# Entry
Amino acid sequence: MSRLIAPGRPRDMWIVAISRGVTIAVFCSGLAVVALAQDKSETVSAVRCGSIERIYQLSPRLYCGSRPSTAEDFAELARLGIHWIVSVDGIPPDVDAARTAGLRYIHIPLDYGSIETDQTARLIRAVEAAPGPVYIHCHHGKYRGPAAAAQTAGVLEAWPRERVAAWLSQAGLIPEEYPDLYASAIEPVKPDRATLDAIDPALLPDRAPVPDLVERMVEIDALWMELKEIAPDAVGEPALARQLGEQFRESARREESRRYGPDLIRSLETAAKAAFAVEAAWRDRQPAAAEREAVARSCVECHRAYRNRDRATR
# Structure
């Protein structure tokens, strides 16, 4: 990994880096990039950190993974040397738990379409202004978090395209599933220095506004992940399936959902019906493999149509 030896923020400067014992000087002029030499053969290292899943160290100052959920998770991040946490998840961050561990949260929620120019600028500004290493996370650490980390590595760490592509593949983000998110990560629009300087890092929020529908989808995801832990041929708790069905049904009633048109409403109602079928089977002490598969199929089809692409193509 490259290591910055002489950081600074003048518009014109020489930056000296050491990469595998080789000193390299790079001249930057008015660009928002701190260019660090990278060996294209380097792979991203997995790290063990509390109960956090899929946590990786991309560089000495950049980590990426899933959402920290316990006090010990935040303490472990602090022990890794993390100073700031950047959440790109829809769910509001646990700011109090982070503060207890001496960490600052910055919340820049992303969806599964393209990352907008202003979001990229805030991501880059947050990482470059941090007093030490930064941890970027989404919910599961597979899609939005790796995309945000890829943008940051591409701009601030000067990762070449092939290395970014290898990292996205390692994380699980592939263009077939999330084409617009992937495109934003593989070829980020680099903010200029003036744009970055206009962003005050102290004013970046620890909790950003999140649309109601996004919050409901986060709840649905959490319930679905819990349900998936139950073996297909086993009988689960009917209340769990009912909660899932209620979340789908309530989402279908929201005005925000109706703005997407009748097809989304039908998808949500279909998912609710399948979840309630799981509940009915479990109340009869019967496994519900087919009913659960119907829920999963509904989610995949809905995500493909409404979540995984840019707003303009939905």
Q: What stands out?
A: Residues 212-313 form one domain.
